[in-house]
Amino acid sequence: MDGDVPLTLRGRPRQFCTEAALAAALEVFWRKGFEGASLSDLTEAMGITRPSLYAAFGNKEDLFRKALDLYEREKLAFMRDALEAPTAKGVAETILRRSLEMQTRAEGPKGCLNVISTVVAGADAACVREELLARRATSEAALIERFETAAAAGDLPADLDPKALVRYLMAVVQGLGVHARAGAPSEDMRQIVETTLALWPGR
Question: What pTM does this model have?
């Protein structure tokens, strides 16, 4: 009913594409992190005014959460695909090769948005950091469960801790992002991936 529509959303329809604006905001957050991205940076990249940003997306924290949803849905879709690999090594290979592909593409930001924005110092960003850590924990829990299944099936050594293996894999993935932001040659990062897979336990 009309009475249920917020006043800020009434009146003339928006004159911009919310999907394109959100994608632009994601690029800014990805390059600068949550704290480094100012409202001026965001509105300029999105091509909208601050009132339009607030009306369409809420405050900066709300916008970041929506951008993070987009990042996970589009950029990290391979994490879900990896869980369907028939072996634990296949899981790791999918994650590592797709991460390498993302970090070595010619255009777009480098690094991991989660890592970049987790390193926050201000009190205003505390809730953002907590949400990032919670999302990371959820992703890691899914991988731990997959590796526990692999260990039970004999696909991984029985004496290997699945939690430790997931932390190792995620450390390599995050390291690729750090190297990419530092401008490391693609071949160097490719060697990291190949070495990790060569040393991977099990089949």
Answer: 0.83
